[in-house]
Amino acid sequence: MSTAELVALMLTDGRLPTGGHTQSAGLEPAVRAGLGADGKQLADVTTYARDRLHTVTRVEAAVAVLARYITHSHQSEGLRLVEGAWAARTSSQVLRGVSRRQGRAYLRLAGRVWPEVLEHLQADSEVPRPIVIGVIGAVTGLSAEQVARIIAYDDVQSVVSASLKLLPVDPAEAATWLAGLHDDIEELVADVSPLTDIEKIPANGAPLIDQFAQNHATERMRLFHA
Amino acid sequence: MHETRSFRLGVAGPVGTGKSSLIATVCRELADELRLGVITNDIYTDEDARLLRSAGVLDPDRIRAVETGACPHTAIRDDVTPNLIAVEDLERDFAPLDVVLVESGGDNLTATFSPALVDAQIFVLDVAGGGDVARKGGPGIARADLLIVNKTDLAPYVGVDVEQMVKDASEARDGKPVIALSRTDPASVAELTEWVRTMTAHVRTGGHTPVDPGPMAPHSHVGEDGTLITHVHSH
Ligand SMILES: Nc1nc2c(ncn2[C@@H]2O[C@H](COP(=O)(O)OP(=O)(O)O)[C@@H](O)[C@H]2O)c(=O)[nH]1
Ligand SMILES: [Mg+2]
């Protein structure tokens, strides 16, 4: 029997074939801009991940929570409104594009694994990733908390694991950073999981992360897509 | 086969063995006769796509790059999603295409394409890598649909006996084709283009079943009755 717990584990497993190996959650351009410079300030990586949890990732998680809620309540136009709210809060065109590309990869997989997803989203469309995750959550019986936690955990894990490729980091140290962020993740989950009103999706932004993303899009030599 | 579905042909092999050059050659020779598209896989951005576009052998819009995030092996094997999306987009935007060539980012001798991504694959070695490589084998060398021993024009300078290298490779491949190629040798280029032509026709008529070279080298174990069994797992 499929349980919500197992679905949640699948969705946060980096081995799920959705192109996750191309993502650093913005860490690569941040490193390029000086984060963790010279290998002396490696703990900057955690600060960066925490800043994301307070800003862009908070927005993403709230969008996923709303997408789940709207899918449950069968409001057919509702997902479009969630998408509009997401776009209004994601000011970087590059980051909107990145999220849509990732969303398409998730949707492609979800359409095979959980076909019911396609009753809510058009196959092969470029839907923002948090909306796809929210809809998967709805059709597989995930709670709002689980959906928010998936977004938050995945984001932190993307940052931390990309740091192993980009900086001279000891993998055990990286895992320690990840564990050290659990409180921040749960705080985010508690904040966004009760949301049921699109207008209440937070609008926190991180202009520097947007700027880094814009720079990265024209970078000639990069390891990660974003 | 769906109307807009092309023949998807993978080109794998270690870095620098001549995959991009081979694709450029195929485009130059066949672009007038087959509707082609190209997907490159780059470890760092779109270097290979740029190189191929600047070679002027194919409409630059038909050459697209997929970023592999430092995992070229993953992108053609365990998680082909970004590549599949790129191939499907190309097939849609330029429908109908006859062949889409997918170049792997190239890492080591063990990397081969998943049959979920390509219908057939070429594995490229070069003489500069040494005459022993073919004999040592590996899944791509042993079981790719076509093995190329490239840059034969360099053989005298690196002390490699091409004939011997091809012979070793053929033995490792159970009769599957091997072509000794050099871009400066028109006869060998003709052999390559003829293979692509024939394979394209074969795939189009549904006569070809994709073969997975698989990650495993042939191995031996002792059977229940004590005899030695040497075999290759076909997945
Ligand atoms: N001498 C010689 N050089 C070749 C031949 N084919 C490719 N090369 C060179 O080998 C190098 C690597 O080729 P490339 O196609 O970029 O290899 P890839 O990394 O496998 O894509 C380049 O400098 C090519 O010009 C050939 O037939 N003969
Ligand atoms: Mg190349």
UniProtKB/TrEMBL annotation, chain A:
Gene3D superfamilies documented for this protein: Urease accessory protein UreF (1.10.4190.10)
Keywords: Chaperone, Cytoplasm, Nickel insertion
Keyword Cytoplasm: yes
Molecular function GO labels: nickel cation binding
Subcellular localization: Cytoplasm
Domain of life according to the entry: Bacteria
Record carries keyword Mitochondrion: no
Pfam families found in the cross-reference section: UreF
Main subcellular location: cytoplasm
InterPro entries in the record: UreF, UreF_sf
Signal sequence segment: none
A cellular component term, taken from the record's GO annotations: cytoplasm
Functional summary from the UniProt entry: Required for maturation of urease via the functional incorporation of the urease nickel metallocenter.
Subunit structure: UreD, UreF and UreG form a complex that acts as a GTP-hydrolysis-dependent molecular chaperone, activating the urease apoprotein by helping to assemble the nickel containing metallocenter of UreC. The UreE protein probably delivers the nickel.
Family: Belongs to the UreF family.
PANTHER family: UREASE ACCESSORY PROTEIN F (PTHR33620:SF1)
Record protein name field: Urease accessory protein UreF
Species name: Kribbella kalugense
Automatic annotation (TrEMBL), chain B:
Keyword Chaperone tagged: yes
Residues the record lists as binding GTP: 13-20
Locations listed in the record: Cytoplasm
Entry GO terms, CC: cytoplasm
Keywords, sorted A to Z: Chaperone, Cytoplasm, GTP-binding, Nickel insertion, Nucleotide-binding
InterPro entries, alphabetized: CobW/HypB/UreG_nucleotide-bd, P-loop_NTPase, UreG
Domain CobW/HypB/UreG nucleotide-binding: 10-179
Gene Ontology BP terms: urea catabolic process
Chief localisation class: cytoplasm
GO molecular function, one term: GTP binding
Pfam families cross-referenced by the UniProt entry: cobW
Family: Belongs to the SIMIBI class G3E GTPase family. UreG subfamily.
Role according to the record: Facilitates the functional incorporation of the urease nickel metallocenter. This process requires GTP hydrolysis, probably effectuated by UreG.
NCBIfam families: ureG
Summary of subunit composition and partner proteins: Homodimer. UreD, UreF and UreG form a complex that acts as a GTP-hydrolysis-dependent molecular chaperone, activating the urease apoprotein by helping to assemble the nickel containing metallocenter of UreC. The UreE protein probably delivers the nickel.
Annotated PANTHER family: UREASE ACCESSORY PROTEIN G (PTHR31715)
Protein name per Swiss-Prot or TrEMBL: Urease accessory protein UreG
Organism for this UniProt entry: Kribbella kalugense
